[in-house]
Amino acid sequence: MKSDKIWFDGELIDYEDMKVHVLTHALHYGSGVFEGIRAYDTPKGPGVFHLSDHIARLRRSAEQYYMDIPYGDEHLAAAVHETIAANKLPACYIRPLVFRGAGEMGINPLNCPVHTMVAVWSWGAYLGDEAIKNGIRCMISSWRRIGPNMIPATAKASGQYLNSQLAKIEAIKHGYQEAILLNEQGMIADGSGENVFAVKDGTLYTPPISASCLPGITRHAVMEMATTLGVETVERDLTRAELYFADEVFLTGTAAEVTPVASLDDHHIGKGPITGKIQEIFFAVVHGEHELSATYLEYPA
Prior knowledge:
This protein has 301 residues and is of the alpha+beta class. It contains nine helices and 17 strands. The protein is globular and about 55 Å long.
């Protein structure tokens, strides 16, 4: 994950010199918001997938925690492109992070300074190349997804991912590759770091945002791509049993991209044709080989 340069508060800093104080508020209380973004190798150079949408979501997450980002959207976009160029990476994972630094300790964060950083590194398939091809083994976690009246489930905030960590660790310790969490009502919410889709009788189903799932940018893109394939997407609550007996199930996310679910709680599902077609169009788009690429990929101004 090491790279040459990290963008921090407006400056490019050598990886080895990047330091924050041990009393940083975010380290103690999780008071940070972040994004996961990918840049893909294309004929025009590194193309960043839905960069503007990711920056907009970063700002929405910050606003939910009363955090003012000290840079405008264009400045943040330029910082992303600058960091990619400084590290000479044709493709990479991108991590913008806005966090509260060292100031007053205690739960009240409002008097702590707000810092912004952008890091990039080479990162292949999150769950492995074999997972993209043949799918993964998943389990329903015993941990429930955070509820919208407990903490803003629509924010991508650092501290919230303790919930996901517990689910992921549980899955790994039980011999699975990924966990799917139910919400407070017992309906399907999200994977530990992905959105969930199911296919039944040629129709695509996914939980609504009100089910405590993150408003995923890859999720939205996949719904648009499904439309170009003539596949209807229905957003509604899903039970775990509906996933057991779905024709296909797959997970989406910046890191996971489009990953099939081969089995859930040892119920065999396997990779199906609609998942395969969505993967085909997705990877063509992100590598600049599709007519939709111009809409989805962003390059330096």
